[in-house]
Amino acid sequence: MFSRGAVRRTKMQGVKSLASDTISFSGVIEAKSGETIEHALVTGFYIDEHWLLSHLSSANTRITLVAEHRLNEQLGDSRVTRITPPKPKASVQIMHSKLMILYFASHMRFVVSTASMTPYGWSVVQNAVFIQDFPRAKGRVYTANSFSLALAYALHDLSVPHELIGLLNEVKFADARAHIVTTVPSGAGGNMEEYGAERLARVLKEAGADPENQGLDDIDEFRPNGRLYCVGSSLGPLDDKWLRDMYVCAHGLSPLKLGWPGVKTLPNSLVDIGVAFHTQQQVEQCRYGSEVGEQHIYAQRKAYEDKKFPHSAMVRLEPVVDKTLVHAKVILARMGESQRAGWMYIGSHNFTPAAWGRMNSKSYYSNNYEFGVVLCNVEYSSDSSSVRWDGREVPLPFKLTWEPYGRSDTPYLK
User: Fold this and answer.
1) 95 backbone dihedrals φ, ψ, rounded to 5°
2) Which is an annotated GO molecular function term of this record (predicted)?
3) Phi/psi at 48 (5° precision)
4) Does residue 384 belong to any structural domain of this protein?
5) Residue 137 CB coordination number (10 Å)
6) What average pLDDT does the structure give for the chain?
7) Is residue 189 scored above 80 in pLDDT?
8) Cis bond upstream, residue 261 (ω within 30)
9) Domain with 166 in it: what CATH number?
10) What gap in Å lies between CA 333 and CA 339, rounded to an integer?
11) Is 89 annotated for ligand binding?
């Protein structure tokens, strides 16, 4: 069912929905063939071990956990290996990647979600999940490609044991069509141009996502043609300069390689970005209680009230299920004159400098471990009501609206 890759919404507690649109955590880890998971690699900001291991109950399933916070640790379970990747500046850097790799006898399941690994994360806040199955043949070594190499490097960055990374050799990734984008905290990796916003720009350039700006060498030749709709559950210290850098990267161009800070010559009026975030009122009206917002939605009051914050970029985030909250991290990019084609990102990256990195004239700085995928050749309907990828509609957990904040609207602040 996931052989060619699919995006799903997570199933909401007490809400009826089409089976083709939503998926539960049980559905994610279940194999149609009835096979048992031999090894599960699970990463997350929060991992509720008691809840997770109740789903991964087979005595034959080995489990590797990479997390920032572990809730209800099951210390007596010998099946479990626990890892915390290195953080050179631990007081400000976090492990936020949300990735699962499930090894069955006949295939490997690749899962990128926006949900924390907790029961609430999969049932009372809306998230998005990308899933693809790849054939596996034990003892065989398949030829590596750009996807498998990017995945291996990402696992290495997360300090995943080499023997587990080595299992990727048994997997045939020829049908992979998603592009992996990761971030590591500054100081934890090597060449920072391989991560975050710089990695996004490189992926989009290699995929030819914006033919109009392909191969530019100077920012003065840049022809902005994109519109970005950026959804997240965290709101950080944004400013016009950072939005300009991200906007250039969204066209497959690197601000650092275009003679930064020359990118400053791009007028703010041409940076077409909507930052979608829940309002205070929406959190207060959540059907599951406002405490859900306290646990899953975060915006820095100091950052939002800073005079440099681009308040005009804020737009309302409308969930597809009324009076619920969206925890997804998604970027939708509409490119070109018609705005009918483009790309989308789904993963753990919130639309913040901590997740995507911040550039200056000589360097790039980021705070977090993040993981996500970019899907190219996305199609948008003329009335902005739907998104399609691979010929199928993408069931997003939010509506494709572009309604600016009203005068009385403020994001949910802490």
Assistant:
1) -100, 105
2) single-stranded DNA binding
3) -90, 100
4) yes
5) 13
6) 92
7) no
8) yes
9) 3.30.870.10
10) 9
11) no
Q: Is residue 411 part of a domain?
A: no
Residue type, 365: Y
> Among residues 133, 143, 225, which one has the least CA distance to residue 176?
133
The pLDDT of residue 1 is 63
Q: Which two tokens stand for residue 226?
A: 């994109």
Q: Write out the catalytic residue numbers.
A: 96, 327
Q: Which residues pair with 42 in a beta bridge?
A: 65, 100
In this predicted structure, what is the pLDDT of residue 263? 59
What's the pLDDT at 192? 74
pLDDT at residue 337 greater than cutoff 70: yes
Residue listed under structure tokens 């089409």: 18
Q: Are residues 214 and 179 in the same domain?
A: no
The predicted pLDDT at position 54 comes to: 96
Which range of residues forms the domain containing residue 24?
6-183
Mean per-residue pLDDT for 363-368? 85
Q: For 127-151, what is each residue's pLDDT tens digit?
A: 999 999 999 999 999 999 999 999 9
Residue 308 labeled ligand binder: no
Query: Bridge partners of 404?
Result: 315
- Is 315 inside any structural domain? yes
Number of domains in the chain: 2
Diameter over CA atoms, the chain: 62
